[in-house]
Amino acid sequence: MQILVDIDSEVPLFTQLVDQIKKAISDDHLTPGDALPSIRQLASDLAVNNKTVAKAYKLLERDNVIISKGYRGTFVHEDALKNSSHDISADIQDSLQDAINKCRQLGATDSEIRITFSAAMQS
User: Fold this and answer.
1) Same domain assignment for residues 95 and 49
2) What's the pTM value of the predicted model, to 2 decimals?
3) Residue-wise over 99-113: b if at least 16 C-beta within 10 A, else e?
4) Do 49 and 100 sit in the same domain of this protein?
5) Is 30 domain-assigned?
6) CA distance linking residue 77 with residue 63, whole number of Å
7) Residues 74, 92: one domain?
8) Is residue 2 domain-resident?
9) Neighbours of 13 (CB within 10 A)
């Protein structure tokens, strides 16, 4: 599996990594149990910050696409194929849209919604 990032793309680097790993799984280039490069190794290979790769791995692990086994490494999760097709961002978008619609029905302005959302994110 080869991972390439486009530093000039508007898509964040960590998102590019997540998308490419999920695609490699859906295309059977990665299968359950396959080892992934360490965060440090992949960051070095791609000439990106370790935190970028760590963030991508954290999101993939949250979604049960990969699993970290401590010092033994990071591996493709046994349910990766099923889980890599699930888009949590779409779920978040739907939930937020429902909340925005409810706020608008209450008479809130977009400005009030933004201010309240920002305050809620900081608490």
Assistant:
1) no
2) 0.76
3) eeeebeeeeeeeeee
4) no
5) yes
6) 10
7) no
8) no
9) 18
Mean pLDDT by runs of 10 across the 123 residues of the chain is 90 95 94 96 96 97 94 95 83 92 96 94 89
Q: How many domains does the chain have?
A: 2
In the chain, which residue ranges form alpha helices assigned H by DSSP? 13-26, 39-46, 50-62, 80-84, 88-105, 110-122
Domain that holds residue 58: 13-84
Based on the domain organization, do 34 and 67 belong to the same domain? yes
Q: Residue 74 and residue 104: Cα distance in Å, rounded?
A: 44
Q: Name the residue type at position 113.
A: I
Three-state SS for 37? Answer: coil
Residue 36 included in any domain: yes
CA of residue 105 relative to chain centroid, distance: 32
Rounded to an integer, what distance in angstroms lies between the CA atom of residue 45 and that of residue 67?
21
Angle at alpha carbon of residue 20, lines to 54 and 5, rounded to 5°? 75
